Structure formats: C-alpha cells, structure tokens
Amino acid sequence: MKLIRTAQWLGMLAVLCVAAQFPPQIVQAKPAAQFSAPVLKWQRGGCFPTWCQTGWYASPAVADIDKDGQAEVIWGSYDVVSLNGSTGAQEWRASNGSRVWPSIVVADLTGNGSLEIIVGRSGDQLTVYNSAGGVIWARNPFGNGEVRTLAVSNLEVDGVLDIVVGRASGGSTKQLNAFDGNGNQRGGWPARRDGEAGYGWGMYNQNAAIGDLNNDGLKEVIGPTDTHYITALDRNGNQLAASSIYGAGKVWSQVGVHVSHAVDLRGYAFCGMPGENRPNFANSAPVIADVNGDGAREIVVIGNVYNCGTNPYTDLYEIPYIFKADRTRWAAGSYDWTVLPTPASGAAPLSEDYNVIESNAPNPVVADLDGDGLAEILYSSYDGRLHAFWLDKTQHGSWPFEVKQAGEAFIRFASEPAVVDLDNDGQAEVIFATWTQKGSNAAGQLIIASSTGAQLHAVNLPRSTDDWDGAMAAPTVANIDADADLEVVIGTANMGVVAYDLPNSANARILWGTGRGTFLRSGTPPVCLQKPAGSPPPTLAGPFFMYLPLVSKGCIP
C-alpha cells in the first residue's frame, strides 16, 4: 500500500481534476468482469465476545492513523473502534452510550501532521479523538438534539480544517454550527441566526455539504432541512443570496422548492392541486460537484416529494434536484433541470416505518459511470431500488436496480453506494450493501453492479441471531492490507465491521470510495488524478494532509 500526502492545493500532479471535473474517456462496450466475486476477509470487527453493538449509517474510514505502515479501519456504532486493517483485530475502543449516526471523519485538523478522529453522536455530542483513542476535546454544539450532520473542510485558506455539524431536533433556527480544529466556535455561528429571514427545521441525516461554489477559494455550506427550503451559508454563517428572479433581496432559505419551477417563482403552492407538490428535505444529504465539467460547481439534493393537500401529507417519490450557486435550477446546453425527471413507475415508498424496516437514507453520489466526462447521479430510495440518473434525466441500461428481490415477501433497502472502476476499463462498477425487513430472518447483501445496472456479484453478509440483518452505511473501498488489491469494508447493523477482498482490483480507479465522498464527509467527490504508466506516485504537500491509500489510477479520498 502506498502512502501519500493530500493537500489543499495539489499543484504537483501531472493530470488533476478537482471535484467532479472528469477527464474525457473513450466509451467502450462493457466486457465480462475481469474481477472475481468479493471474498470474506474478516468479520465481527469491534464486537464483544458474545454480542455486537448496533451499527447505523456511519461509513468506516481507512487511514494509517499511527503511521506504522498498516492501515486502520475506524468505525463507530456507539463506541468508536480502531481495527487492524489486515486482521480486523481491535487496536483501541472509545466507549460511549450514545449512537453514532454520521460517518467517521479522519483528518489532520490543525496541520501538525497527526491525524484526528471526529465523531458526531446523539446526546448533542461532538468529540475529537487522537490516533490512540484519547479525547482531545468535546463539545455540545446545540444544547439539545442529536448530531447526525458532520462535515469537515477548510472554510478559508488558512491551513486549518473546520468542522460543521447539524442538529437533528426541532427549532426553526440554529440548525448548523461550526468549530475550528481546536474546538473554538467560529464567529457568526450557529446559523441560521434568530431573527433572520427564511425557514428551516431539523436535519435528520447527513445534511450538509461544503464546497467552493463561486471559485473564490472560500467555502460555502449547503444544508437542507425538514422543510421544503434549503439553507445556504458562507464561511461566517451569513446567508447566501438567491437570484432576483425569486424576488428582490431574498436568500436561499426564503425560496421554497416545489416540483414545478413556476411554483418556485410564484412563491407558494396551491396544495392539493395538480402540479403543486413539493419536496421535504429532512433526510436529504446534499452534494456539491461539477456535474458537466465546465468548472462551475452545482448542488445536488434528493427531495422527498409529497402531496401537501392531504392530512397527513402523502409521500409520493424521491427525485434529484440540481441547483446553481444562486439557487436557480441548473440547465446547460441540451441539459435542462428546470423541469424535473419523470419519476419511475412504482416510486412510492414501500415503508417509512422504522418498526418495519430501518429507514432509507437517500444520499446522492455524483460520479461518471460510463467514462463520457459527465456525471451521473445515484441514490437509493424508499421504493426499494438504487437509481442512477444521467444528465438527460433518464435512467440508462438496467437502472434502476431492483434491491427488493422478485418473489420475496419482505423489503430490502440499499445503502449509499461506492463507485469504483474495478478493472480499469473506463466503465465504473457500483458497490453497495443492503439490509432487510425486521422479522424476515434474511441476510443483507454486498452487491456489485455494472455501469449499466446489471448485477455482477451478490454475496450474503454474515448473519447474526437477530431477525433481520445487513448494512445501512455506505461501504468503503480502500487497500487495508499489504497486497495490491483493494478491499471493501462495511459497518453492519448487527455483526460489527466486515471486510471483503476484491480480487484482481489492483488497477482500480476509485471515483467515490466511501460515505459522503471522502473521509472529510463534506459531500464532495474526491480529487481525481491519473498517474502516467511507469511513473512514481505523486507527492502531495501542503499546510495540512492526511495519510491515505492510493491506487495507481483513480481518486484520492
């Protein structure tokens, strides 16, 4: 496994694409897969001798946190554990009685060369651990609620990473807070502030993305809330202006989102009338990415569209939205997302009752599946399918992928996927986990699908004694041992962390390798690079860095 340093500005790469600016490639017909089915490497990582804590939606991180040349797998359920990547043996445990919902962050917060582990939990907990599992600092960001939203980025060019967290509880303001790497609350936060214009409520998933929307080197924060409004903030917690087409002087959180852009422009819906439906963003994890490679970054978010004319409201389907930095809907050339895609038939929820099956989290993934230089939008939905939309607003090939299997009398849902070109043929594979309905007594699965949505491999995840199983969190694809092939590590619901070898994957390209895109969990694609054949691995230097695995051609988490 090669170890490199990733930096804020990566000027030493021969070929570099930032965010989702994908290099054009020749599209070829997909041959039979050159890689074999995943092979179980180890299981029950982080479990006790006779039982395992429940795992939720936290994707594992992989990094050599102690710099001994062996990658660790870091994961949280309630406790946080560090595991030897090669064997799964526990190296340390940080005990806690509160649930870890957001994916674990591993980062050098202050630029001193050491890696920290950042964790959000219920009980209003934000905790930063050192590489040995000791607490460096802890904060209660809001005074109540659960920290389900966690994202890290350098909000300005000062060499110090910042932490953004979101609150999963009621309240119309102060949904987001921000801290520097030393635990100091940033000026202007929490936000939105009391008395400010706009609308918002709680954030019940990993509901923040951080990215540079206007290419000025400074970062913005996008935070959908449990409303049909989206909060957009600058690095100091000030609200971002919306286009004047929605009315003079408005900010993002004042402009409601509906199915019809005409209703957005009108400013209110006639609930119950045809064409007047709107989305809720309670569970909406946004992504900031350049979807068409023109240098401008867009905001991608999945909306849970409902009929606001019924009591209670009737959820109808989940669908992607693409916005520009000024809140207008995205359109470019022949691609026009001012009108939404038509939902697939059968898109209504199979269940939204976590007593029946644990809730689906529609985290979007933005990656180029077919190598044409344009991004696709993937997300799992409560309709029991994994969707993949091209920019022409259609699903190609065999997409959407049917997770709920024909003939089964119970429901399966899919995790956020990873996207990796395992055989480096220009056509990316999609790797995801599934979980099953309670009382089904059925295993979840690890599934690999082709770029066209055809199933290539499906293996059952290890079973527990519970009456349902699987994994709700995104898998992480990385090199966790001494061989050249990659592995996939999964935080399961009932069996701790499991790891699988991915045979014949040594030349893979990782396009979206973990939950929320990178180990910073900022909702942005990783930095993409290509290493010319036969050249040494690039050296990346800068004011702060992380030690991470590098494949010979791909993207750096």
Question: Could you write a compact summary of the structure shown?
Answer:
It is built from 1 helix and 39 strands. The protein is mainly beta. Strands 28, 29, 30, 31, 32 and 36 form a 6-stranded antiparallel sheet that branches. Strands 3-35-34-33 form a 4-stranded antiparallel sheet, with no helix packed on it. The protein has a 4-stranded antiparallel sheet with strand order 4-5-6-7, with no helix packed on it.
Write the layout of secondary structure elements.
Blueprint: E1 2-5, E2 15-17, E3 39-45, E4 61-63, E5 72-76, E6 80-84, E7 90-94, E8 105-107, E9 116-121, E10 125-129, E11 135-139, E12 146-153, E13 162-168, E14 176-180, E15 209-211, E16 220-224, E17 230-233, H1 261-266, E18 278-280, E19 287-289, E20 298-307, E21 314-323, E22 331-332, E23 335-336, E24 365-367, E25 376-380, E26 385-389, E27 401-402, E28 412-414, E29 418-421, E30 429-436, E31 445-449, E32 455-460, E33 476-478, E34 486-491, E35 497-502, E36 509-512, E37 527-530, E38 547-550, E39 553-556
Antiparallel strand pairs: 1-38, 2-37, 3-35, 4-5, 5-6, 6-7, 8-9, 9-10, 10-11, 12-13, 13-14, 15-16, 16-17, 18-20, 19-20, 20-21, 22-23, 24-25, 25-26, 26-27, 28-30, 29-30, 29-36, 30-31, 31-32, 33-34, 34-35, 37-39
Helical residue percent band: under 10%
Overall, the morphology is globular
Tell me the number of strands.
39
- Provide mean pLDDT, rounded: 91
Question: Approximately how much beta-strand content do the residues carry?
Answer: 25-35%
DSSP helical segment count: 1
How many domains would you count in the coordinates?
A: 1
Radius of gyration: 22 Å
Distance from first to last alpha carbon = 15 Å
SS class: mainly beta
Find the CATH superfamily: YVTN repeat-like/Quinoprotein amine dehydrogenase
